[in-house]
Design a protein that fits this description.
Blueprint (H helix, E strand, L loop, with lengths): L2 H20 L12 E2 L7 E7 L1 H11 L1 H19 L3 H12 L5 H16 L6 H8 L4 H12 L14 E6 L9 E9 H4 L4 E7 L5 E5 L11 E3 L3 E7 L13 H11 L3 H9 L8 E7 L4 E7 L4 E6 L2 E5 L6 H7 L10 H15 L6 H8 L3 E2 L4 E2 L27 E10 H5 L2 E6 L9 H7 L19 E4 L3
Parallel strand pairs: 2-5
Antiparallel strand pairs: 1-2, 3-4, 3-12, 4-15, 5-6, 6-7, 7-8, 8-9, 9-10, 10-11, 13-14, 15-16, 16-17
Helix pairs in contact: 1-3, 2-5, 4-6, 5-6, 9-10
């Protein structure tokens, strides 16, 4: 990014901040039930309430500066890795995604655009839709480039994200559900993945979830709703396939969080109109029945498993042999690969801690540095707490998509917490190891393109947020 362009962006960001401070939010009736809390241990709680248009407007207004910055991050990442400019993604958002977004979420997306505009940020609804599609674009562009025989060498490929588990019955301390997840993504965007959204929609269930500024879904998908459903997911490594005629994943994920009162509800909503975008193994818990489930959602192969006494784990490995063979390029037999090594570690931890798993255990698992391939403690891409930047093997393919990557934040909940709509969260690596942007860029000048947006990512303490209004 040229220095002059970045300077102009900084001036705009300052203007937005001044606008946020100077304009009285209470003057607009759409903001009556909305609020933004002071930052706490790196996290910001944002309360949104009302119709879809009101929720969107509140979101855009309260987080205008952060949304503008997040759009800048997305544009930088996508341009660098896909060799396509922002106009390409705006057009795809308008022509491919928008016709398949139902009116409720069109209203909310438009509301976000209206809210940021009210704070002096010049983004439109196509910018907001393109931003929400961020995690789906690697799937779409892979298919697009193949169909159009694009010659530009794109490195934008579906990434590998996250470590997670859900357990219940004889595996947990009280026999009730426990669920946890840490988000693996690029540090440039992950340091901004620190919003806790408390959403009270006019229709559907109340939601408490983590998320990114400007996104209507969690995006790394950890949340609980007032009907007792708790969800998370991990992506399927090497997944191939995308149906542009399907419903965007970000719409289905948000709808499932908002309208599911059972595991069956969640599976039905996620499967309906499945486009293969951001293909995941979804881990689901119902605190009312203490049943847990794994929904491996490929484009062609879908498997739902469930139990009231057991566990499911996720670490980016394909579960179904049929899906692995037909819809993934991942080698399930190479135990040196991160997803396979982490899968082994999860199974070890579940067995070793059977009957004692609780929130404290889950928090400890999120900070685990044991490498099952080398059989020693060494933080890297093979450990549950992911430190791709510290790997002695170098970053390799783990720098794609979007450069420097690893764990960026963590979440935990159990049945008791879910009943009162609360989550425990930790920013950065919960193990205590922080990330220094300047030091890393000095050691890896190949990532200097990220300098305008790359920030330090300190390790934050576990902090509980609760829907209290």
């Amino acid at each position: 990014m040229r220095r002059g362009v970045f300077a102009s962006f900084c001036l705009m960001l300052c203007a937005v901040t001044v606008s946020l401070l100077s304009q009285g939010r209470q003057a607009d009736p759409r903001m009556e039930n909305a609020s933004r809390s002071p930052e706490r241990n790196g996290w910001t709680l944002v309360h949104l309430q009302g119709t879809p248009a009101q929720i969107g407007y509140q979101h855009g207004s309260l987080l205008a500066a952060e949304i503008l910055e997040m759009k800048g991050v997305a544009e930088l990442e996508l341009n660098h890795d896909s060799k396509k400019d922002w106009t390409f993604f705006r057009s795809a958002a308008r022509d491919m995604m928008w016709p398949r977004i139902e009116q409720e979420y069109r209203d909310e997306l438009q509301g976000i655009a209206d809210g940021v505009n009210a704070r002096g940020v010049k983004l439109d609804v196509w910018d907001i839709v393109a931003l929400n599609g961020l995690l789906e674009w690697p799937y779409y562009t892979t298919v697009y480039d193949k169909q159009h025989k694009t010659t530009a060498q794109s490195s934008l490929v579906p990434g590998d994200h996250c470590s997670a588990f859900v357990a219940t019955g004889s595996y947990t301390k009280d026999g009730k559900v426990v669920i946890a997840h840490n988000n693996w993504t690029s540090y440039i965007e992950g340091v901004r993945w620190t919003i806790v959204f408390d959403i009270v929609p006019a229709k559907g269930h109340r939601i408490l979830m983590d998320g990114l500024p400007g996104f209507i879904h969690s995006a790394d998908d950890f949340g609980v709703n007032s009907a007792g459903i708790i969800i998370t997911e991990t992506t399927i490594t090497g997944f191939k396939g995308y149906d542009p005629k399907g419903i965007p994943e970000f719409v289905r994920a948000r709808k499932a969080m908002q309208y599911s009162a059972s595991i069956d509800d969640f599976a039905r909503i996620m499967k309906e109109g499945n486009n293969g975008g951001y293909a995941n193994d979804w881990l689901i818990a119902d605190r009312k029945t203490n049943e847990v489930a794994s929904l491996e959602l490929g484009l062609k192969n879908v498997t739902l498993e469930r139990t009231r006494d057991g566990y499911f784990v996720g670490a980016n490995f394909p579960i179904s042999p049929k899906l692995a063979a037909e819809e993934s390029t991942f080698d399930t037999k190479d135990m040196s690969l991160s997803p396979n090594a982490r899968r082994v570690r999860w199974q070890q931890l579940m067995v070793e801690n059977k009957g004692t798993i609780d929130v404290a255990s889950a928090e400890r698992f999120m900070a685990d540095h044991y490498d099952t391939y080398l059989k020693k403690i060494e933080p890297s891409e093979r450990t549950l707490c992911g430190h791709v930047d510290l790997s002695p093997r170098g970053m390799g393919d783990w720098q794609r998509p979007f450069g420097i990557a690893g764990t960026v934040q963590n979440k935990v909940a159990d049945a008791t917490m879910a009943e009162r709509l609360s989550l425990a969260v930790s920013a950065g690596h919960s193990c205590g190891i922080g990330f220094k942007a300047a030091d890393h860029l000095k050691a890896h000048p190949e990532f200097s393109w990220q300098k305008p947006y790359l920030k330090d990512m300190p390790s934050g303490p576990w902090t509980v947020f609760e829907a209290t209004r």
